[in-house]
Design brief:
374 residues, alpha/beta, 16 helices
């Protein structure tokens, strides 16, 4: 079956909403943070470790899996779930973000038919179309597939964004027309930068195509300001249906997740928790800490005493610092467990705040603590 979303409650003071998603792998509550497994793995972690963090939906990347090992190999393995041994729901992005970052000459390489770009692996010439992106995702057999959209840079002009979102709408229809996996939901993507009229137009026209869920795109590109991100959400949400999932793409900063939930977003994803982990950084209630810092050499306390993750139950900052500074891969894995659990626990607490109609108080308390320096 395709996933189904049910709205359970609205927070009385904001647009925050409590919901649930029914999938072939169980029912999951929203708001939700989704860990990213670009190449069909959350870096350095087993599926069991990811599950222990409280994960629901996880992500995999269409572009990377298309190049290696190839969608036909994954299909022969029985689909992504069997290939990567994850018995929970999986979302695949369209590959658009990676493709557009690899297309050097935007005006020449981005055509109505699709995008020309060079492989990051061997420099070979590649061409990806909306139809091909959906075909790959159909074979990967994820639970949620994403439409192939243009990802304009944060610095793009109003006219560029207008033309870009109109092309994205045409591509969305083309992708929907060839989507053939009856057990796979397909999401449309709203673009338009920080412009109210463009976001309204994009959201309204995308909803007319009747997708299974809707994503707010163009908010996590390099150079995007926080103000523009929040505008993009505010300008898009009013035009998205209440009975469908709302997904903010590529956002994993704790405060941005809180602000997104307050504005009516249901699900989030980002590589941030595992990426910063590999560089020795950890989320805490008092902001990020860097375990490369020498002050942690003799710190034999957990990253956070109040955290219930495996890492905080069994290891100290001093030991993890030793692993990071000696380039032992276990260090990045232990920090990834903590950081993923931190963001998932954050969404669990946001769900409780919505239930109790106190999300604004929660935000105030969290930001006050998070801005402290350890």
């Amino acid at each position: 079956m395709k996933i189904k979303y049910y709205l359970k409650k609205k927070e009385k003071n904001t647009k925050a909403r409590l919901g649930k998603i029914e999938t072939n792998y169980g029912t999951y509550d929203t708001p939700m943070f989704m860990p990213v497994g670009t190449r069909a793995t959350i870096k350095g972690l087993t599926p069991e470790q990811v599950k222990e963090c409280g994960s629901g939906i996880v992500l995999a990347n269409t572009y990377h899996l298309w190049l290696r090992p190839g969608e036909d190999i994954v299909k022969k393995a029985g689909g992504l779930h069997k290939f990567m041994n994850y018995d929970g729901p999986i979302l695949t992005d369209s590959g658009g973000f990676q493709v557009f970052s690899l297309a050097k000459n935007k005006e020449k390489d981005i055509t109505e038919d699709g995008v020309f770009f060079k492989s990051h692996i061997d420099g070979s010439n590649l061409f990806l179309t909306p139809e091909k992106s959906i075909e790959i995702q159909n074979k990967l057999d994820s639970d949620i597939a994403m439409s192939f959209d243009e990802c304009p840079p944060a610095s793009a002009s109003y006219d560029y964004l207008k033309n870009s979102l109109e092309r994205t709408l045409r591509w969305a229809k083309r992708g929907k027309d060839v989507h053939s996996n009856k057990n796979q939901a397909l999401f449309g993507i709203v673009q338009g930068g920080p412009y109210k009229d463009l976001r309204k137009f994009s959201a309204t026209e995308t909803v007319k195509l009747d997708f299974d869920g809707y994503s707010i795109g163009g908010v996590a590109n390099d150079g995007e300001s926080k103000d523009d991100m929040y505008k993009a959400i505010d300008y898009s949400i009013p035009y998205l249906p209440e009975d469908k999932i709302r997904y903010l793409m590529g956002v994993g900063d704790p405060i941005d997740i809180i602000e997104g939930v307050i504005r009516g977003v249901d699900i989030f994803d980002c590589v941030l928790p595992t990426r910063i982990a590999r560089h020795g950084q950890a989320f805490t209630r008092c902001g990020k800490i860097n375990l490369n810092n020498s002050k942690f050499i003799e710190d034999f306390t957990p990253i956070e005493k109040s955290c219930d993750c495996y890492t905080c139950k069994h290891y100290t900052k001093g030991y993890i610092r030793h692993l990071i500074t000696t380039k032992e891969s276990l260090g990045g894995s232990l920090l990834s467990i903590h950081n993923i659990r931190f963001l998932i626990k954050l969404t669990e607490e946001l769900r409780d705040a919505i239930k109790n109609d106190c999300i604004l108080e929660y935000r105030e308390k969290f930001i006050k603590e998070y801005s402290q320096k350890k």
